[in-house]
Amino acid sequence: MDCREALLKLYHYLDGELDPSEYMDVEQHLHNCKGCFGKAEFERIMKEVVKKRCQKERSPEHLKDRIMELIHQIDINSEKSQSRPADKDSPFNTFNPS
Amino acid sequence: MTAGLLRRAETVPEKNTVNRESEFRKEALSHTDAVYRMALRLTKNRVDAEDLVQETFLKAYRFWDSFEQGSNCRAWLFKILTNLFITSYHKKSREKQQFTYDDVESHYLYNQIEGGNDKHQFSDPEKMLFNQLLDDDVKKAIEELPEDFRIVVVLSFVEGFSYQEIADIVGIQLGTVKSRLHRGRKLLQKGLWQYAVKRGIVKEKAP
């Protein structure tokens, strides 16, 4: 495998999208070619950095609470329409998230 | 079976509901952080991101019975999210994709650094460049990508989905995933370089 071919397959290599024999060929080339190895390392690190920098945010707690509340509401409404449409004493409080 | 149906007709089937909800909580809501982060990168602001996440989970819950247990719930949620974003969010925002770009060479960032006059500064170019970029620089560089490219870049880089999974999530051909990812990568590198210049980490080269 020459440099041109190795670089052509580099992104697929980094993304884990090559079959094992192609993977080995690229790896072999990178092992022997300092220039391509440098490029590959750079691209690999960039990918890692982007992932790391973008994975810190957490969804706000109030959002999770609101979603749970809304889906609970969906259930209550569907039960009402299915079984007891006129029931005004639907047990809103029977569901206790643990 | 008959007894179950009878019971359902007579009383509120609390057990089923509680089971369904707790199953959904365990299987689907455990992915809220990831779904929220994707929504942030797509909508670029917290308010719209929260709306999109909420819509995604409500839709997922409505279709929960059609979700094949044991299959990839995270991919399923991302599919709903991406679909909602592409179809409904656009109608709201009327954001037109009007983006033209010059073709960017491959390995743009590497070439800029390695090929530049500043080479002596970069005995360890990765460290030098990436450590000094702020989280916000990276996020902005992603958010500035045209939408089609941004979606596949985030799904691949940040979420680690395979090309085939991305094709299924976005509803495009495998070849399209590859070409968008390739272009997205190059554009992202150019964007990161521009932030590095802005931060004074590297010097802009004379044209």
Can you walk through the features of this model?
The complex is a heterodimer of chains A (98) and B (207). Chain A has a domain at 3-53. Chain A is elongated, with a radius of gyration of 27 Å. Chain A is mainly α and 98 residues long. The longest helix of chain A has 22 residues, at 61-82. In chain A, helix 1 packs across helix 2 (20-32) and helix 1 (3-14) packs parallel to helix 3. Helices cover 68% and strands 0% of the residues of chain A. With 207 residues, chain B is an all-alpha fold. Chain B has 2 domains: 2-93, RNA polymerase sigma factor, region 2, helix turn helix motif (Rna Polymerase Sigma Factor, Chain: A), CATH 1.10.1740.10; 108-198, Winged helix-like DNA-binding domain superfamily/Winged helix DNA-binding domain (Arc Repressor Mutant, subunit A, Orthogonal Bundle), CATH 1.10.10. Chain B is built from 11 helices and no strands. Chain B has helices at 2-10, 14-27, 32-43, 46-62, 73-93, 108-115, 125-132, 135-143, 147-158, 163-170, 174-198. In chain B, helix 9 (147-158) crosses helix 11. The termini of chain B are far apart. Residues 1-15 and 117-122 of chain B have low confidence and may be disordered. The interface between A and B is large, with 44 and 56 residues.
